[in-house]
Amino acid sequence: MMFDLPDSQILYQALLTRDVQFEGRAYVGVSSTGIFCRLTCPARKPKYENCQFFGTISECIDAGFRACKRCKPLHQAAGDDPVVRPLLEALDAEPSHRWREADVVAFGFDPSTVRRAFKRQFGMTFLEMARQRRLREGFTTLKAGEPVIAAQIEAGFESASAFRAAFTRLIGLAPGSFSQNALLQADWIETPIGAMVAISCPHQLHLLEFVDRRALPGEVKRLIASQPGGLGFGRPPPTRQVAAELARYFTGQGAHFQTPLALHGTTFEQDVWRMLQRIPAGETRSYSQLASDLGRATATRAVARANGCNQLAVVVPCHRVLSASGDLTGYGGGLWRKQRLIEIENRYRERELS
């Protein structure tokens, strides 16, 4: 990000008024459509609870959003760049094509020049942008229960190994490793601040993370290694319950989560996570306060590490922990999400006080 994003309420007002001061500096992803736009987009405005704001186009794409065909944020960012614009138009025309450097050369461009131009404009290369667009189609096919080969073809990957590698980098598990009769089952939950992956057995929720969290692949691998029975696609009762509770949470109907949880960690880590669950919505704590509440006043750093190891985002509210000065500190889902969650919960608190 080139500058710190202001409060999401300010950005939403800028979206409503099509304020040009944020042109090229902030973008909105709309969870109900899966599309991201410039704040000056002339399209019908989404509801606030369906909006999430980003500072760069690459963050929008990483979070799974597609560029709006009306306000064309990719083309706006490209300007009149004679290298970027024709390649964007070609990608729009053939999104499922497996683009290679040879295709770039066929357009008459030097691959290294194209890499630099796209990194400068979007924070990712042209080939990375094309691959992410194709991979998203493959995920949708796998979730629908289709075989891996169908997902590979839908995603436009000619090589099965390339598709497996790309899938594994994001999830941490090869697509062919998923089993129909697995004890643990994974599913995607859409939220106003980005898609989440939930993994549950028939009785407990084991993992809930934003799909763009970098630690997700490692977390999935550790979970599968510790739990026999493999992993499949599906929505057991705990996933259905937490999806409903998240929907209520983001629409202002309640901040209490009662989904049964499986806490995978040391005794100390589990103590920290349970302490986090006792912090009321709309309140925050510092790491040192948590350590003191646990009777371990000198364990501030250990508390911070346990906080970072939490793999049940939102329901175990590690976002409610700030630095001693009250500033936002590291959050695996991104500081912009932490800020948004605190804003949501402040409204719960304000309602209670009034």
UniProtKB/TrEMBL annotation:
Zn(2+) binds at C37, C41, C68, C71. It catalyses: a 4-O-methyl-thymidine in DNA + L-cysteinyl-[protein] = a thymidine in DNA + S-methyl-L-cysteinyl-[protein]; a 6-O-methyl-2'-deoxyguanosine in DNA + L-cysteinyl-[protein] = S-methyl-L-cysteinyl-[protein] + a 2'-deoxyguanosine in DNA. Coiled coil: none annotated. The keyword DNA damage applies. The active site is at C37 (nucleophile), C318 (nucleophile). It holds the Pfam family DNA_binding_1. InterPro entries: Ada-like_dom_sf, Ada_DNA_repair_Zn-bd, Bifunct_regulatory_prot_Ada, HTH_AraC, MethylDNA_cys_MeTrfase_AS, MethylDNA_cys_MeTrfase_DNA-bd, MethylDNA_cys_MeTrfase_DNAb, MGMT_N_sf. Binds 1 zinc ion per subunit. Its EC number is 2.1.1.63. Residues 107-181 form the HTH araC/xylS-type domain. Its cofactor is Zn(2+). The keyword Metal-binding applies. GO terms for biological process: DNA repair; methylation. Keywords: Activator, DNA damage, DNA repair, Metal-binding, Methyltransferase, Transferase, Zinc. CDD domains: ATase (cd06445). One of its GO terms (molecular function) is DNA-binding transcription factor activity. Gene3D superfamilies: DNA Methylphosphotriester Repair Domain, Homeodomain-like, Methylated DNA-protein cysteine methyltransferase domain, Winged helix-like DNA-binding domain superfamily/Winged helix DNA-binding domain. Belongs to the MGMT family. This is methylated-DNA--[protein]-cysteine S-methyltransferase. It comes from Epibacterium ulvae.
